[in-house]
Amino acid sequence: MHGYELKKRLSYMLGHFWTVSFGSLYPALKRLERANDIEKAYSVKEKTRNRNVYRITASGEKAFMRLLADTSAAGTLSDSEKFDIRMAFFQYLEPETRLKLLEKRRRVLEDQVAKFKAYRSSNRSQDRYQTGLLRHKVEQTRSDIRWLERLIAQERTAIEKSDAESAGGPDASPGGGRGHMEAASSA
Questions:
Q1: Based on the structure, what is the number of domains in the chain?
Q2: Secondary structure, 3-state, 161-183
Q3: Given a cut of 70, is residue 68 above it in pLDDT?
Q4: How far is Cα 41 from Cα 55, in angstroms, rounded to an integer?
Q5: SS3 content of the chain, % helix, strand, coil (to 5)
């Protein structure tokens, strides 16, 4: 895709989580091109401009998957916006990797709740608006934790089912294995 088309696609996919500006997109494309993660496929003459059409390279796909699966990147696990963007691409990860990321995100949020509560109890000079805001943040974070717990349970169930199918267990289907499950879930 060329930059304008890529911006439209990203805005459609991630518009609720992230705004893409041309001022950040084109420098990012240049960085990715210098790193050989993308390459110019061809140029298209549109009106008075040439538009470069890019494609991802094999090394770019590997870099994307490495960033997506990185469980050590604390910033992307503690920042809600960054985690939401990552989750938009969860379909490309193995279930075990998704499970690890979800569990780490849950721990980060549980730590945040503990910090909110400790701050609230140690700081008695707060007015009712500060107290209300902290209470709201704790409730919101607890809601996110409950949502993550449901996702974690779903991932565990999917992993157990896949393991049982690949082991030829009593619930094994004729196709068996993870590939069969992924094909069925994408249908």
A1: 2
A2: HHHHHHCCCCCCCCCCHHHHHHH
A3: yes
A4: 6
A5: 70, 10, 20
- Domain interval for residue 20: 3-60
Rounded to whole angstroms, what are the CA distances from 2 to 31, 60, 126, 171?
15, 16, 51, 47
Q: Does residue 170 fall inside a structural domain?
A: yes
What are the pLDDT digits (tens) for 91-144?
Answer: 999 999 999 999 999 999 999 999 988 887 777 777 888 888 888 999 999 999
pLDDT over threshold 60, residue 81: yes
100 shares a domain with 46: no
Cα–Cα nearest to 37, from 46, 26, 45, 28: 28
Which residues make Cβ contacts (< 8 Å) with residue 139, sequence separation at least 6? none
